[in-house]
Specification:
single chain, mainly alpha, 0% strand, globular
Length: 95
């Protein structure tokens, strides 16, 4: 089966050793992080997904906190951020 063109399917978040692979549900992560940034309660910091990010991708947490302050509410914005975090930023194709 061939891979669709566009983004590479190997993620940017990789363990240091070759013995582990991370399986990430991109849509589920997008929904969970959107729930985080749109939750007005301080208890959002206790969500399991945020606890996991502190261990797996701590650099994402300050960006999410900035999204809270910026009032991000669109799923498409969160989906773009999650995809870029996992697979790298999209490169413009030359004509």
């Amino acid at each position: 089966m061939t891979q669709p063109t566009g983004f590479p399917r190997e993620g940017m978040l990789r363990p240091a050793s070759p013995f582990f692979r991370l399986l990430i549900d991109e849509d589920g992560l997008t929904d969970a992080l959107l729930d985080f940034v749109t939750d007005p309660r301080a208890t959002r910091n206790d969500l399991p997904v945020i606890q996991d990010l502190h261990d797996l991708a701590p650099g994402m947490v300050p960006v999410l906190e900035a999204m809270v302050l910026d009032g991000v509410e669109e799923r498409s914005d969160m989906a773009a951020y999650v995809h870029a975090s996992l697979f790298g930023a999209a490169r413009d194709k030359e004509d």
